[in-house]
Each structure stands twice: as C-alpha cells, then as structure tokens.
Amino acid sequence: FSWANLSRNLLLAYQSFGVVYGDLSTSPLYAYTSTFKGKLDDYENETAIFGAFSLIFWTLTLIPLLKYVFILLSADDNGEGGTFALYSLLCRHARFSLLPNQQAADEELSAYKYGPSSQFASDSLFKRFLEKHKSFRTVLLVLVLFGASMVIGDGILTPAISVLSAVSGLKRNTDKLTDGLLLLIACIILVGLFALQHCGTHRVAFMFAPVVIVWLISIFSIGLYNTIHWNPNIVVAFSPHYIIKFFSETGKEGWIALGGILLSITGTEAMFADLGHFTALSIRLAFATVTYPCLVVQYMGQAAYLSRNLSSIDNSFYDSIPGPVYWPVFVIATLAAIVGSQAVITATFSLVKQCHALGCFPRVKVVHTSKHIYGQIYIPEINWILMILTLAVTIGFQDTTWIGNAYGLACMTVMFITTWLTALVIVFVWQRNIMLAAAFLLFFGFIDGVYLASAFIKVPQGGWVPLVLSFIFMTVMYVWHYGTRKKYNYDLHNKVSLKWLLGLGPSLGIVRVPGIGLIYSELATGVPAIFSHFVTNLPAFHKVLVFVCVKSVPVPYVSPEERFLIGRICPRSYRMYRCIVRYGYKDIQRDNGDFENLLIQSIAEFIQMEATEPQSSSESSSLDGRMAVISSRTFQSTATLIVSEAEDSGLSHSIQSSKSPTLQSLRSAYADENPQLRRRQVRFQLPPSPGMDPEVREELLDLIQAKEAGVAYIMGHSYVKARRSSSFLKKLVVDIGYSFLRKNCRGPSVALNIPHISLIEVGMIYYV
Q: pTM for the whole thing?
C-alpha cells in the first residue's frame, strides 16, 4: 500500500465510474416500476414497498458486493475478467479446449503460468474424468458461448431500456408530448449513439466519469431528501424480516416480481468484464465507497416516497425528484443513460473480438479507434447490427417493463453461467477443496437460480427476446467453431509426409527460383496439404520457404518478445522454415508493415542460434519440431544482420530480381494507390565476421538474396464440404451454414493484412 500505488488506484477508480458503473447506476430509473407493474398491481401498499426495498438492498449486498467485489474479482486471468477469461483459465489448467492446436512451447509463455502451479492437482480423479469426456468439454463451450451471446443481447437491450427510461421523464412536465413523439426522440438519440461509435470512446471518455459521478451524487442527495422528508421509518426495511413479510403477503406474485427486483443489479457483470482496463482494487474502492452507498440511499429514498405516494409507481423515479432540481436531474439522467449504453456497446465489440480469437466467431473488420489507449476497438458490421436490433426492440415494445423483462433475463443468465464457471475455477485453478466450490455453487447458484426462474416466467412478456437473439448468435458461433475444428482436423490428418519431402531432395524435384514464399496455414506442426497441391501442379517454387501459422493461445496477451516461434523443416539445404506467430485473445493484430522484416531477422537469429547450440543428435536438424522463441530484443544485442533503410535506386543493382518489368510497374502502381499499405523498405547485410561458419554464412546470404528478390504470400482458398456419407444435420451445418459464413465474412488475407499484389491462392476442397 505505497502512496504511488494508492494514488494510481484512486485515479483508476475515478476513471472506472464512466466505463464500469454507467449501466448499474441507471437502474433506479426503472427498477421499482418494473417490479410493481403487472402482477403486483393489487399489492401497492406500504408493506410491499418496504419488502421490495429490503429485497433490493440484500440483492445489491449479496450479488454485486459479496459475490463480485469480494470473490469474483480475484478470479482474473492476468488482470483480465469476463466469461472468456474464466474459460481460458480452465483451458490452461485442464485440457478443456476443443481445438487441438496447443503446443508444449505455449506453456512456456510468461502469461500462461498465471495463477497457482498446477502440479499438485494434476492427477485428481474429477479432473481426469472431465478431460476424458468430450461431451463435457462441448457442454462447457456451449455454456460459454451462450453467456457470450447473452452479453451481446445486453448490448442491444441496455441502450433501448436506458434511453427510453431517461426520455420518459419528459412526460411529467410536458403534457403535449405523445408516446409516439417520445419514441421518436429515443430513436434519434439511439441512432446518434451508434453513428458516433466510429469516432471511438476516447474522444468523449474524459466526460464519462464526471457524468456518472454527478449522477451518483444527484441520486444520493435525492434519496436522502426523500427518506427524511417522506418516511424516515424506511430504515427498518434493512431487516430481512420485511422480505419474509413481502412474500407472505404477495405469495406467487411476489416471486414473479423478482424479475423486476433483479433490474437493480443489471450491469454488475461489467465490474468483472471490464477488469482488464482497471485493477481489482480500483473497482472495489469505487463500488464499496461510492456506487454501493449511493444506490442504496437512492432506492431507500424512492421507497420512502412511494410509501406515501402509491399512485406514482408508474413513473416512480421522476415523480420522486423535487420540483426545483427536476430539469438538471433529467439532463444528467439522459447523459448517464448514454454513458451506460456506450460502455456496454464497447464491451460487446471487445467480446466479439475475443470470440473470434478463440475460433468462435467469423472474421470481421476491427478498427482501432485510439493510438494511445490499447484495446479500444470498433467493429462496423456488429455496430450496425446492434443498432438495427436496438431500434427494432425499442419500436416493437415501446414499454420499459417489457424491455426490462428481456434485459433482466439476459443479465441473470450471464451471472448464473459465471457462477458455474467460477466454481470450476475454484477447483481447477485455485486448487481448493471441491466442497468449498460446492458451497459457493449452492449458495450463489441458489440465489441466481431463484431470480433466473422468476425471469423465465416472464418469457411471454418480452423475455423471449434475449433467448431468440442468443440462439441466433450462438448458432453462428457454434457453426463457425465446428467448421473451423473440422477443417483443422482435416489438415492435421492430411499433412505432407516428411519422408516424401526428404525423398524429393533439396530441390523438391522442381525449379527453385529466387524469392521467399510465405505459406500460410493453420497447422502448428507438419506441412499442410496445400503445399503438395501447389508443388504437384506448378513446376517452380521459391528458394526459401516459410510455413507461417498465426494462432491464438488461451492467454489475454502475448508479449512481443515471445510472439515469434521459429523452427526448421527438413535439413539445412532445403531452406524450409516454420514460423508460428502467437497472439492472446485480447491482443490486437496491427499491421505496421514490418512483419516481413521481423520475420527475416527472426529466421536469421534462429540460424545463428542453431549453429552455436549443440545438436542432441546428428539427425535432429532434419526433424520437424525443433522450435525456438526468438525475441525482438535479441536483434539489438546480437546483430546477426545489419539493417539499413533501403533507397529505391539502391535496390535495383543489389540483385537481379526475378520479377518482370511489367510486374514491377504493377507493384509500384499498387503502392501509389494504397499509401496506407506501403511497407517499410529495408536492406539486410551480413556483418563482417571472419569466425562465422561458412554454411551459416551461405544460408544467411541465401535468405538476404531471397528477401531482395521479393516475398510472395501463398494461402489456401478452401471450400469445405461434408462427406457424402454424412448425416443430414452435418450437411446442413457444413454445406449451408459454415459455407454461408465463410463467403460473407472477411477473407483470411484481408484479416492478416496481406498485400493483394503479392498473394497467391491455392484452391482446395476439404471433405470433412
């Protein structure tokens, strides 16, 4: 608890108000109205209102304060939170992942070892049982995808309910406004909100925290005033005795009304999901010292007002505002609703990016909205889909109670899934007694289950919306994951035999022309089938071949020093290498035009490293699998190659290029038309070192000459089809579902920032 650490956490706590608490802090706008509207119309009396406040107080205390702030914020993954963070933790500490592209080298990543060492619990019977049954791993993935789909549903419902609730405040003082006009104002605000997403939150983020803090102070002051002015006796409702009285009076209707009570904690998941932008201590400080007391006092004040003004239940929040401060509070409420919506939309973009990284979402365009703030992204396709669905929900329902039913179900489902995943984390990651996990699951699972059951009762009254949306999103995610997995397994089982390559000799039985061929594949080991397809159909190939695999590992971030994993395929004379580029699920793949140069430097470093390190056996160099992590830091320290900025005139006489003048003119025209894709031109030279091994020198010279001759990118243009013997369902999923998604998402070459002028695509049909 040094002063520097405390001051940093206080600053982060201040910033967290704008990002984390916008949604949770706007719940008083609609919580009481949604609770009493419908089944509790006949129970609008003081006892019911005292009971409702007691329920809200204990719900706020048990779920956000106890479960999230004190327990769940500790279940982070290298400082990251959310459903996928829990899933990646589980995949690292137990073999729960369904995509078989893990390597032993991934376990050496510094971020991989986060959390307690798994040596002690590695042989537990429960763990081996779950790892052995693929059906459990499938259920776990479906559960995570369902939770992710519900969070995307939140991104649709939060703006709808927040903005509609805030705008409804205009009705109190202006009788001329019809419901249709209010709906139009809400829709204009929503369209504006989504239209401004491409600017990025950083342009208005400096306003977010002050808006939410002013909002919290306002609702705290109004709550305190209403408590003292209307009914100070409301303080007795802190006793859980009033919850018993509430249920004894209202019975089944009271239980159904829990669907409205749970709206008081919507937005709680953001505390855990947005953990990566802040620290656990800063979020705990912000919630325990400011957000929690302000919300409790506001709900208490609103209950005190309602106990004396039962007719105001339909518009309880705005009616409880004292006249002189009505308009300022209305303006702040609208701004707070927009801030809360903005935070959820941004979180949805981040979640879709994580889904894609784990192979569960089609490729989409990711735009970086800030040069300074890492992780702030904008996804155009998702933004417009969210906008259309939000407007459809707003115009379709026009009623915050129905949208509230949908919203409550979505939020509670995410919390329920998080509880189950946390119980697994307690066993497999924290390595605590299984009885402790069972106790956690029973206690919080029971509370979540009661609320979830109550929310499911309201499926006919709007609760069906998140279920339908989640089903659609989850189907897209699972179909994409299934197709990706089948395609990977096909590649795995149809790898090119190394004996076949060795039998062809160093020339591979074809003409080896100057240049570097980068062959992209999803395979982390072995030679992909597209290579043999290419070799058997074309009589020439590049002198230097690099098999590139860009893969995601189950950690949030991979440091640049650990990103490249370089190895050799076949003996030295073949000039064939492997490069695995590793990214975490929250890493952003930025194209700064330096990939080729980093790759050349990494391979050169590997060649030098391999020559200095002793071989384990004479044959080891001919095997596929000898890999080494090449850090960018070693480039400066060892300087295997001298790097200098290349002049255009200087390149022409350095080596006789294999490219025709026509192709060279096409390349320069392409560069002129696409200045943003212009790559940094550098020249590599060998340093004067008399002691260098002649074979190493020759190999490095071949590498430099190949680079100057040009780099070509070779990718498989795959068509995935189900086998004829497959079931009807599999044909439906692969031939129609997966094929449709592949045709309508971004191409792999675009996603990997590959220049079109250098791209060669090899057609392949996969029968899976």
A: 0.85
